[in-house]
From TrEMBL:
Gene3D superfamilies: 3.30.70.260, Periplasmic binding protein-like II. Pfam families: PDT. Signal peptide: none annotated. This is prephenate dehydratase.
Length: 282
């Protein structure tokens, strides 16, 4: 049975999206994003599931810097609605909880619950790890914020579901592999992710992006970040709708080359059903 690598431990949200998206594969927990990437290169995993962003927390640290040098291709995207659960050992109750353990980002997403219970937030290294710690403590006063999967794996009961402050809390994931998946240029609903640098001239970014506008290419994402710790070398990560071989996108990339020092396509892949539903709704 083939494996899919993710960062974190069993029960993490990354583990959950792997199981939901690829139930026929075994999940391979890795300590870091780099380790998940390396697992694919070494053949211990066929795929890696890596999160670039969350609708509340924003960009996932380090991912944008890792992607261009990963040596992997993006072959798909997945979206997971983050449903935080309040987990506690059997016998505990809402009234008995005095401390809530979780990753700091998750704790920041359940402030209303913490205030309601008058509980003390306790920072742990990740959500699934918090569930493991609470299970080991077996205290009626300690609870964890984590996925239902983490509760199931560690024998915890769910005191309350969907305790997050915002209902739109969603994490996006890239599915990455050693080799790209080849799609025909006329395949509908494709996305292309790429990175580029611009020349150090006035209005370079404006000119670089002009070809996408004039050719009617919809750009859904554009983010900048520093390269090699310098304030003068900026790299951009962008996402557009379409296939690079389609006429309008091909022309846009041709124009981009005049103002960019480097362009690297990270992957062309089908848009997830979540994206298509949002597009249809507005």
């Amino acid at each position: 049975m083939s494996s899919i690598a993710f960062q974190g431990q069993f029960g993490a949200y990354s583990d959950l999206i792997c199981r939901l998206s690829y139930p026929e594969m075994t999940t391979l927990p890795c300590e870091t994003f780099e380790a998940a990437i390396e697992a694919v290169h070494e053949g211990r995993a066929e795929l890696a599931m890596l999160p670039p962003e969350n609708s509340l927390a924003g960009r996932v640290a380090d991912m944008h810097a890792l992607l261009p040098e990963s040596g992997l291709s993006i072959i798909g995207e997945k979206f997971l609605r983050i449903e935080h659960c309040l987990l506690a050992p059997p016998g505990a109750s809402i009234a008995s909880i005095k401390r809530i353990h979780s990753h700091p980002v998750a704790l920041g997403q359940v402030r209303r619950l913490i205030r309601e219970l008058g509980a003390t937030p306790v920072v742990e290294y990740d959500t699934a790890g918090a569930a493991e710690i609470v299970a080991a403590k077996n205290s009626m006063e300690d609870a964890a914020i984590a996925s239902s999967l983490a509760g199931e794996l560690h024998g915890l009961q769910i005191l309350r579901r969907n305790v997050e402050d915002e209902s739109h809390n969603t994490t996006r994931f890239y599915v990455m592999a050693k080799e790209p998946v080849v799609f025909a240029p006329d395949t509908p609903n494709l996305m292309t992710t790429f990175v580029f640098n611009v020349r150090n001239v006035p209005a370079a970014l404006f000119k670089a992006l002009g070809g996408f506008a004039t050719n009617g290419v919809n750009m859904t994402k554009l983010e900048s970040y520093m390269v090699n710790g310098t304030f003068t070398a900026t790299q951009f990560l962008a996402e557009v709708e379409g296939h690079p071989a389609q006429e309008k996108l091909r022309l846009a990339f041709e124009e981009l080359t005049f103002f960019s020092t480097e362009i690297k396509i990270l992957g062309t892949y089908p848009a997830d059903a979540f994206r298509l539903a949002q597009r249809a709704g507005g």
